[in-house]
Structure formats: C-alpha cells, structure tokens
Amino acid sequence: MAKEIETPEVKEYLDVPHIQPGVMQGDGPFIAKPEHQEPLGFPGELVPDWQNKAIDKLGELKSKYRSLQLFLDICVKCGSCTDKCHYFLGTADPKNMPVARQDLLRKVYRRYYTIWGKFGFTRKLVGAQELTREVLDDWYNYYHQCSECRRCSVFCPYGIDTAEITMAAREILDSVGIGMKYTNEIIAKVFKIGNNLGLPGPALKMTLEDLEEEIEDDTGVKVELPVDREGVDVLLITPSADFFAEPHIDGLIGYAKVFHEAGVSWTVSSYASEAANFSMFIGSYENMKRQAERIRKAALDLGVKRIIHGECGHAWRAAYSFWNTLAGVGHGGDDAYSRELQKQLDPAYPVPQHICEFTWDLIQRDVLTLDPSENDHMTLTFHDSCNVARASRMGDKPGGQFEIPRNVIKAVCNNYVDMPHHTIGEETYCCGGGGGLLTDDLMEVRIKGALPRMQALKTTMEGKGVTHMAAICAICKTQFSKVMPYYEIGMDRIVSVHQLVSNAIKLTGQED
Amino acid sequence: MSAISYVYTFLFYAAAVLLVGGLVRKIYIYAKTPAPLKIPTTPAPVTRAGVVYRMFKEVVLFESLFKGNKPTWLFAFLFHFGLLLVLIRHTRYFVEHVPSLIAMSQWAGIYAGMAMVAGLLGLLARRIVVDRVRYISSPSDYLILLLLISIGLSGLGMKYVAHTDIVQVKAFFLGLLRFDWQNLPSDGVLLVHLALVAILMMIFAYSKLLHGVGIFFSPTRNQVDNARERRHIADWAKPLDKSSGQ
Predict the structure, then answer these.
(1) Which of A79, A92, A380, A506 could form a disulfide with A20, with the two C-beta atoms 3.0–4.6 Å apart?
(2) A329 CA to chain B: closest CA distance, Å?
(3) What is the DSSP code (8-state) at residue A429?
(4) C-beta atoms of A97 and B206 within 8 A
(5) Which of A66, A76, A389 minimises the CB distance to B219?
(6) Smallest Cα–Cα separation from A166: which of A118, A241, A215, A103?
(7) Using CA atoms, how far apart are residues A505 and B153, in angstroms rounded to an integer?
C-alpha cells in the first residue's frame, strides 16, 4: 500500500493523454467483510458457483432495467465519450474511457446473451469474452474507478450512461459476494443507527446544542437546531457530514439561520439523520428503497408538511429523482402507499425542496437581511456537483440547478467568477471522489481523478483572482479539502454555499 | 429465370425476414422492459413536447455528438444524411410509378452517395488513427465500416464505371414485392452490391446498427424531468411498496 502517488502536473490547458494500458490495474478498494454484506442481503463472501450466478444476475438486471439492455446493445464505439471522463484524463488508463469501462461488461453480455457469443469465430469478431476470474477482478477494479457522474452520457449520441453500467456491475459483484467495504459498511450503519457516521441520537442532540451555543456566542441571537420535534412545518434531511465536518458544518449553521429568519419551524430527525443514499452507488434498488423509506417514516412520524434537503449532490439526485418512486416522497402519486404521506404534505411546495431553492425564494422576496461585504475577503467560484448538474433540477426550469446556487452566492458575495464554461454546468467535472470512491484506499484514483477540476480551478485562481470555491455537496467538500493540498491549494479554499449565506446574513436583533 | 436470380430471390427474402423479425423482437424487448427510475440526463425537458424536440435534435442533428467531437460529428453527419438521400433515390426501384419529387431529386442522390463514402472513410480513418478509438474497436467495428464503404463504392461504380440494366433490376425488386419473381442481371458489380446490402440487412437487428432504433427508447433522452410532480414506478417495483403502518 506504500505506493508513491504522483500528483499529475497541472498545465495551462488540459491535455487529452495518449493511452497507457494497465497503469491503473490493481486490486481495487478493500473488499467488504461478511458483516458489511449480510445486512444488505448480499452473500458474505464469493459464492462457489459465482460464474453462473453473475451471468444470471446480468440477465435479470437487463430484464428489469431498459437502460442496461439498451446501452449494452447500441453503443457504436464512436469514441465521443473517450476523452470525457476525469479518471481517464487523470490516469491515461484506457479502461477508464467510458466506452471501455462499459465494454468490460458488454463483452460478457455479448458472450452469453447474443448470437455472436455462440461460436468461437464470431466471439473474436465482436470481442465477446468468457466471464473468468480475471474479468471479474477487472470489474471490481475498474467499476470502482467510476464516480457515476454521467459526464460521458452528455456527449453520447444515444445518451448511454456509464453510471447505469457501473451500478449494474456493482450489483452483480455484490450478488456474488464481492462488495465494496466502504459503501456497504456505511449502508449497514444507516440501517442500524440512522446515518453514515453511526452518530446516535443523543450525540446528534449534543452536537446541535453546541452549535446553538456557538451561534449565540457569535451573534447574540438564540437560533434553534431542533431534533425530533413533532408538528413542525419542515423536516430537514441533510448529509450527516453537515453535523461535524469542515466546511460542511458552517453550511448547516447557514441553514439554521435561514430557517430562523424565515420564521419557519423545522427539525432534523434522529431516525433519518442522513440524506446520503449510498445504495444508489451500488445500484441496489431494494437497499436504496430501504434507505429512502427512513425519510418517509420520519416525515410521517413527525407530521411535517414540507421536506427540505441540505447540500449534497448524489443525495439530491436520490431525493429529487428517486424518492417519489422509491418511497412516495413527492407529489402526484395515485396509489394508497403514496397518498398516505402525500395527504399530509403541503401541495404549495415542491417535495423535496433544495435548501438553495428555499433560500433563493426568501432572497427574492426580500425576507433576509444580507450584507455581502462580509464575504469581501473572498473571490468565489462555484463547482457544479455532478449529480446536481446532470441528474436533478432546482426550480421550475431546466438548468435551474446551475442558476439558483449561483444566484444565492451572488446575493451574498460581491466577488464571483465562473470557471471555464466547458468545466461547469452540464459539462462539469466530478470532484474525483463521488460514486462511493471517497475512501482512503482509493487515494490514487481520487487524486488523479481530481485533475480536470483542479486544472480549471487553478487557472481561474491565477488568471481571475479567485480565492475560494463553493460547493453544494458533502462528498465534493470532503474530497476537495483532502486532495487540494496535493495540487498546492489550501484545504480551506473549499466552502459551503450556506456558509457564505451564514457570513452575510444579519439576524434580527443581532448586534454588529 | 437464371440460377443466380433464384439465389438472390431467396437471399433477399431471408434478409428481409431477419431484418424485420429481428427488429420486431428487439422493439418488443425494449418496449416491455421498464425504466424503473427517472434518469433523464439533465437539464432535461419538463414537458412531453420538450422531449420530442430534444429527441428531434438528437436524431436529426446528432446534438450530443456535436458537443462531444466535431470531426466525428462531421463524418457521421455526412454518412447518415448521405445515406438518407441515397435511400430516397433508391425508392424508384420499389415503386412502379416514380413520384415526381423523387424523380427530381435523383441528381442529389449521386452527390449524397459520394458524401456517404467520404463520411465513412473519415470514420474509418479516425478509428485507425486516434489511439483511443483504435483501442475500443473490435474487428466487427471495422468490418461494418468496410461493408458500408463497399456498398457505397459498388453503387457508385454502377453509375460511373460498369452500368447495369436498371430496368431489369427494378423488375426484379418489384417482382420480389409482388411474389412474381423476375430475372436479375448477372453483372458482377451489381451482384456484389446486392449481396452486401443483403448482409447489411441480415446483421442490422443483431449488431450495433440497432442504434438507429434504440435511440428512441433511451431513458436518459426520452424521459420528462418531472420526478417531483409525478410518481414514476415500474410494475416489478410496485409489490415492494408497503405502508409504514405494517
């Protein structure tokens, strides 16, 4: 493990590297132990008949997901995606080109599920391949060098989304007993305790009480951060990193101040104290549903009218795009299951609503007193998080997920500059730590995968005087504070959007 | 009727059966396989009409490929648009009375044939020259390009080098459609051209050429972005819903 990791050189422009086969060959991340696998319904270790089981699982998944069936069929190998993945750009390993990553699964699909796989000669023609132990190991290694960020799918003429393939491959691996320790241990913790950190209810209460004191010391105003308070209007679902990590916690303080000034009653839930849904990363519908149903149960138990979601990227995808499907958390359901929660929710508000949507609405209505000069010591830029950018929305219009966070930042900061347009918006680069890769056993992948974002940030810092980058994703924030020092950028240069709001907001009754 | 005419008669019926049968089977599979989750690549349209517009831009203009790679887009557009005009030009072999619009557009079909071959050569060159694209190419990827190039060149060859009896060719194909089989001229270039077309028809529904149909079923492109307003759920997922009171 003592392999020296070389940080890629940041140049003026991002070069597309020549391919270097095998440079990221390896064992992949730590493998889950039985105690991490079994609570998720997966076998504890590699099952004896794994080859047939994996092939059958592929068959089952392609009959349940049109995306998988279609994407395995229709790729024409045009190459449009080949230079779009941050992991390829950072490592030059050709198996990190999206199409080549898909082909690891596609060649097995062609062997067992197409006519070409039946004869030795035609197998060679179409690149069909037996599912051997080497192929399985390649899957484990390379499907854990994909952050499911969907950048490739933007450029695919058929919308082929490698994230769908990666999720399917990880589900196949889980189903034969080879899971990833980091994701599966965390999911098991959510089922047992309620959040990724394993932070129990009493500890959560104490943490939030400490924060209340901190805000009062700072501003002279008592701002509440309630836990499990019944009958309030809003349930806040936020990543548990917001309860302890820097700069996440400064964002949480920002949400609390915004709720306070808006006069909206709210609470967090100790039962559903986690927005993150890592089951999405492993493509497990059943586990993703189990996680989402904790939010449903908390909303029902607490009797809230609205659900607001904190700053987290993949979690916002799960919330915005999937909660309604998985747990009836949304509007427009006409079945008994979804009506049970729907009848309690206020139809005047979207469910779930992003904290940026909530804050921007208040800003537009002039509810908040803001002093942007409080952020004058910084010049900001904004990192669009992949899942927010390409797998969700904010507001009523397509692209609101780009405008609304920027509008919020510009309302609370005087100095704002965008990074180059091909690195933001729908073409944004992943931070390098998404998709369940935010673990120390994948440090090399994380550092190298951050190259495109670091390149864009660094040139914007040098050319446009940007000092700080804001983000609305817990994973992005943690990843950046860890990898930025490798690129000679201070770890404190990543900030939460609501940290900026917190700095600028003037609480009613606050002394200067 | 000559022996070779019988062979080609059989060949085209077989090709048509494989093409239609294969496409029907795949369309059935795509249509019945659900997309259990909302996965449009966003920003995505929020209305059905918006999806139609998005799909139009994708199918007609290759919008995403344009974003992704300009040379590939150019070659792909030359090929596909060329092929479309060539196919329109060829309809005269399948209808007794050629509509005047098709008769008037015959000249365009010739240039389109050249554009088509030029585009294909560009795509082939890219596949060979760019190391990334070379890495992801299987023999079948080259063979399909060579097949299409050969069809294009043999077609142009009959226009410029070795003419064939196109009146008899038309009689042959109208005969196929009416089950009143006719002789096919036994010119070498024509036989090569038609044999390759038959092969193309045979592999279409069993290869990556399916993209022409598959794109319409792509959930990242054809879904409306309305997850918060409408509950989207697959049939297989419904039994998993259990009220929390239980």
Answers:
(1) A92
(2) 8
(3) P
(4) no
(5) A66
(6) A103
(7) 71
- The string of pLDDT tens digits covering residues A271-294 is 999 999 999 999 999 999 999 999
Q: Show the tokens assigned to A267.
A: 């609470």
3-state secondary structure of A244: coil
In chain A, which residue's Cα lies nearest the Cα of B213?
A: A74
Tokens of B231: 């509950």
CB contact under 8 A, B34 and A64: yes
Q: How far is A72 from chain B, CA to nearest CA, in Å?
A: 9
Say how far residue A278 (Cα) sits from the centre of its chain.
Answer: 9
Quick check: A396 contacting B, CB < 8 Å? yes
Cβ of B35 within 8 Å of Cβ of A67? The answer is yes
Q: To which H or E segment does residue A309 belong?
A: strand A306-309
Residue A321: its chain B contacts at CB < 8 A? 37-39, 227
DSSP 3-state assignment of A1?
A: coil
Q: Between chain A and chain B, how many beta carbons pairs sit less than 8 Å apart?
A: 243
Quote the pTM value.
0.96
Residue A94's closest chain B neighbor by CA?
Answer: B132
What share of chain A in percent tops pLDDT 70? 99
- At the topology level of CATH, where does A34-185 sit? Fumarate Reductase Iron-sulfur Protein; Chain B, domain 2 (1.10.1060)
Contacts of B243 in chain A (CB under 8 A): 336-337, 340
How many whole angstroms separate alpha carbon A474 and alpha carbon A498? 12
Q: What is the 3-state secondary structure (H, E, C) of B22-91?
A: HHHHHHHHHHHCCCCCCCCCCCCCCCHHHHHHHHHHHHHHCHHHHHHCHHHHHHHHHHHHHHHHHHHHHH
* Chain B residues in contact with A427 (beta carbon < 8 A): 67
Closest CA to A28 of A442, A397, A386: A442
**Gap from B13 CA to chain A (nearest CA, Å):** 20
* Pair A160, A102: CB distance under 8 Å: yes
Average pLDDT estimate for A182-196: 93
- A155 vs B contacts (CB less than 8 Å): 64-65, 67-69
Cross-chain Cβ contact A67/B46 below 8 Å: no
- Domain boundaries of chain A, sorted by first residue: 34-185, 195-356, 369-504
pLDDT in tens, A68-82: 999 999 999 999 999
How does DSSP assign A346-388, residue by residue? -TTS-SSEEHHHHHHHHHHTT-S-B-GGGGTT--EEE---HHH
